[in-house]
Amino acid sequence: MFAYDFMTNAFAAAGIVAVVSGLVGYFLVMRGQTFAGHALSHIGFAGATGAGLIGLTPLWGLLAFTLAAGVVMGALSERISNRDVAIGVVLALALGFGLLFLHYTTSFAMQATALLFGNVLAVDHTMIATLAVLGAITLVALAAIMRPLIFASLQPELAEAKGVSLRLVSTIFLAIVAVAVAACAQIVGVLLVFTLMVGPPAAAQRITTGLWTGLVVSAALALADAWLGLTIAFYTDWPVSFCIAVLSALGYFATLSARPGRHVHSEA
Amino acid sequence: MSAVTLDRATLRIGDRAVLSDVGFNIEFGEFIGVLGPNGAGKTTLMRAILGLLSPTSGSIKVLGRTPERGNPAIGYLPQLRTVLPDLRVRGRDFIASSFNGERWGLPAFGRHDYRMIEETLDAVGARDLATRPLSDMSGGERQRLLLAQALIGAPQLLLLDEPLISLDARHQEIAIDVVRKVCRERKITVLFSAHELNQLLGTLDRVLYLGNGRAVLGTVEEVVTAPVLSRLYGTDIQVLRTDGHIFVMSRGRDVERTDHLHDHHHGHEAGHNHHHH
After folding, report:
1. pTM score > 0.90 for this model?
2. Measured distance CA(A227)–CA(B31) in Å, rounded
3. B244 partner at 20 to 30 Å CA-CA among A246, B50, B92, B230?
4. What ipTM describes this predicted complex?
5. Is B187 on the interface with A (CB under 8 A)?
């Protein structure tokens, strides 16, 4: 299967995105902000179709929209980012606009499917390089804020008392999520970013209660989902995103059915 | 020098003066019970001591200095405690997250930090919580974990904001005993806010009663009297003492108990308001 260029490209791109998604998603799940992540991807859809309409690469439109939305959500912090209804309304609006922009785009169906469900088999070297740069930025930024991020996520009241700016941390974090979502959408599409950003971290948190082990397991699971999904897709001719979605869900439910309360002892 | 000194201090939230022109001295090593009706300013006072809120007039001195955010000499257990319902993080990492948690960069906890956490958990009798995820802990266990956390780093001053909320009677007593024991041993000054005076009677050195924008600090005999409390509550209060218990009554109803019933609602409201200001 690696005899084909498009497959090696797909493995490289999916690998980069999976690791980034697994790590960023871990904190998204820890903070209980998965819905915000979901919303960001939908808002990105409008950006991507809008960019396509004016002749830009969809990725940049996607990135611009998710980043803007992430920063706004972070800045409004407690008022918006945890309010399901407000987020729900905005994400529906964004999808509506996405549809409007698509309506004026010539290659309607192709574009829409690729954006919504991903098109990893069409990834070229430029895209891999772009994803690598985006991934690196995401991980460096995440490393830079990790300590206050964990503190602010677990104990916001105490963190504030110790001088952590909850708003600043939340804003930077959602900006990081925005970049990760934009990258993730290139592989599995805006509708399925959960498969890499939520499924593996949620499973990892069921498996281990240690921080570092959790991060490693989350990234490893995301990578396994992505690469195994590609492999299955190659041999069955099923859509890649479908395979990844199934693996992600299986991983999550497998850990759920493990007896709660019993956990693996592990050293961080 | 005193542990905490307020000199004609006024604390406002928005337009409302929660405490106005308040003055008192808390000495080192004292165990102070902070009491008063809901909204009397217990949490606000603690936030001011932490440096999260500056007095609009007058001054506050904490351990001899103007309060500033992030003072490592103060241990704090907030009243409003966000509990993520399904947090699969074990106790040890939960506590460790607060170590230098305000600094940028990657978290780095060494063996030394973990040993310190375990020793402190031992001190509050909760060593087994180190390896259990928070999602599996009961309310009492979480409380103990937070208490342990507040004690880490050898604080000189401990601010415990309603630490007894959501604990049953037995766990309330255990919590009070643990705080008393640890703080006496380490000579830590404690501000312990609560709804019920009686449980603290055997423990506290003095009581700080807040109400109606005012604050009165003194022994129980000095402060918990009908004239003083009537002034603080702004209504006619009777104080009944029987057999080691004190009942604070307003028109025949037990003030503390009726407060307590509404506790959850008011507690959260107050907490949220603080957050937005």
Report:
1. no
2. 60
3. B230
4. 0.80
5. no
